[in-house]
């Protein structure tokens, strides 16, 4: 495994562990998801550059578009949650009270 692959896979794993273990605030969960998507985008971009193929050149842009949609939906949920509940703490959210 090259050091570049190790760096991006460890960045993804760190984002995943941050998402799994630090679930106190919705904003921290969204930041972990964005870190994971950023590491996937850079790794996919480098992979398509290493292959020297034009078949995979649209894949990083498609992933970036989905990442932007995910970020906007997450921020909309963050604003809606903070308006209705007054906080973004995940412990205050209860699905049975909807």
Automatic annotation (TrEMBL):
Membrane-spanning segments: 6-22, 29-49, 61-80
UniProt GO MF annotations: NADH dehydrogenase (ubiquinone) activity; oxidoreductase activity, acting on NAD(P)H
Pfam families: Oxidored_q2
Entry keyword annotation includes tRNA-binding: no
UniProt key word Transport: yes
EC number: 7.1.1.2
Top EC class of this enzyme: translocase
Broad class of the protein's primary localization: mitochondrion
Topology with respect to the bilayer: Multi-pass membrane protein
Protein family according to the UniProt entry: Belongs to the complex I subunit 4L family.
Protein name: NADH-ubiquinone oxidoreductase chain 4L
Organism: Pennahia argentata (Silver croaker)
Lineage: Eukaryota, Metazoa, Chordata, Craniata, Vertebrata
